[in-house]
Design a protein that fits this description.
There is one protein chain. This protein is mainly beta. The chain folds into two domains: about 25-170, TolB, N-terminal domain (Rossmann fold, 3-Layer(aba) Sandwich), CATH 3.40.50; about 175-439, Neuraminidase (6 Propeller), CATH 2.120.10. The protein contains five helices and 30 strands. A hairpin with a 5-residue loop joins strand 16 and strand 17 (about 290-295). It is elongated, with a radius of gyration of 25 Å.
Length: about 450
């Protein structure tokens, strides 16, 4: 009888407290199934224990809370709870485990609780301690302190904390340590812009009299390469993040198409210097040093994995445009887009295991993903409009792409699992050609 009661109690504990049963809460974002975690971001408290924040100037505490909530809401494995979901009120009672009333958050099925404690800081906004707790065990997942000199630093503080939280739960936090470059149309011109993956800190990189196309980041995120079309020529442009300088180069041939950085920091690009476009590698002085892919057909759109051992590209050597994979060690190229008649814009995951590309389906482009080890191919995006120009995030989990599904082309975000696309706000105007890179 006692044994039976113990078994029942153990079963109840496993049902009511999955985090406790597991020991450590974590999220497998790369596996076939994806956990969803209930997360609540509590209102800020005073660090001296006097209750709600009152001595911090402006609305910094509320803005930080909102930023953290909005950042986490971008992630498909978080289900964001509101104060109305917490029976007994959303105030945690304190910001350290010893003073937090975890019971009411357990009743609301909260998995992760984020607390904030502020203290005034002479000559600045204040100092804040941010903590994330596993509710069913009271375990501290992340604890960080930040000095905030001005309200302009609030987005950066929120991004840093969310990166650490995501890394603690998933093993990767680069989503919040990266940004996306893209092309915005301004009348007859097209300029390069960049923003965070959440659409924050929007910056205009170029102000050129012409059309910029096909941006691509170096693997370390310090340089951005793109093609610029002025009234006479196609030019290769390289923007340096450190110096914010722009270097413009003329290359052999009349047409430059879709540059990309290799692992070593050289640039690969399609040039028509011998007739049809082929893929060449340029050295650090942007001189042609070797052919990477040459064929009687058109070869464009190179992209490389982090190791530099694999290159994907598009070729029409079989009649229609298809995606090919080249083993850089053996020199062997093979077709990897096995369905459809029009496949373009490939991007290979940093670990070299998956390739995402755009396929024409009933007159509209849709994103498809091929798993290289198995060769299996599946459709990622559906619905109205065309989805094009996919680019992998540095962590190999998210995919940004351009789509006109809601009107003029904008930048959207999905995952390798094909989660519902999320619009990345980039301001007014058409936005295309996203390129994801590290900060």
């Amino acid at each position: 009888m006692i044994k039976k009661i113990l078994l029942i109690l153990l079963a109840l504990l496993a049902f009511s407290a999955p985090a406790l049963a597991a020991g450590v809460l974590n999220i497998d974002i790369y596996g076939p199934g994806q956990s969803r975690v209930n997360l609540f971001v509590a209102e800020a408290l005073s660090k001296d224990g006097s209750g709600p924040v009152g001595a911090i100037p402006g609305n910094a505490p509320a803005e930080l809370q909102q930023r953290i909530h909005a950042n986490c809401a971008f992630l498909p494995f978080f289900n964001m709870l509101s104060g109305k979901d917490i029976v007994g009120g959303p105030n945690p009672g304190g910001y350290v485990a010893q003073s937090i009333d975890f019971n009411k958050f357990q009743l609301a099925r909260t998995d992760v609780l984020v607390t904030a404690a502020w203290a005034p800081r002479p000559g600045g906004v204040g100092e804040v301690e941010l903590r994330a707790y596993e509710v069913y065990t009271g375990r501290l997942i992340v604890g960080k302190g930040y000095g905030v000199a001005s309200n302009q630093q609030i987005p950066e503080v929120a991004a840093r904390f969310c990166a650490d939280l995501m890394e603690a739960l998933t093993g990767q936090g680069d989503f919040f340590r990266s940004n996306i470059a893209f092309i915005k149309k301004e009348g007859q011109r097209k300029q390069v812009y960049m923003a965070t993956a959440q659409g924050l800190n929007l910056q205009k990189i170029t102000n050129l009299d012409g059309i910029a196309v096909s941006p691509a980041w170096s693997h370390d995120g310090q340089k951005l390469v793109f093609v610029f079309l002025d009234k006479k020529y196609h030019n290769l442009c390289v923007w340096d993040r450190r110096t914010r300088s722009l270097d413009k180069k003329r290359l052999p041939g009349n047409t430059l198409i879709a540059p990309a950085f290799t692992k070593t920091g050289n640039v690969a690009i399609s040039l028509d210097m011998r007739g049809n476009p082929d893929i060449y590698e340029l050295n650090s002085e942007y001189k042609v040093v070797r052919v990477l892919e040459e064929n009687w057909g058109i070869d464009i759109g190179p992209d490389f994995d982090r190791s530099g051992e694999k290159m994907v590209f598009v070729s029409n050597r079989l009649g229609n445009p298809h995606v090919f994979l080249k083993n850089m060690a053996t020199g062997v190229s093979k077709r990897i887009s096995l369905t459809g008649k029009y496949n373009t814009g490939p991007s290979i995951s940093p670990d070299g295991t998956q390739v995402v590309f755009a396929q024409m389906v009933n007159g509209k482009h849709k994103l498809f993903l091929v798993d290289l080890p198995s060769g299996r191919e599946r459709q990622l995006t559906f619905g109205a409009g065309s989805d094009e120009d996919p680019t992998w995030s540095p962590d190999g989990y998210f995919i940004a792409f351009a789509s006109n599904r809601s009107g003029p082309s904008q930048i959207y975000l999905t995952t390798k699992h094909g989660d519902e696309p999320i619009l990345i706000p980039t301001g007014p105007g058409e936005a295309t050609s996203p390129a994801w890179g590290k900060l």
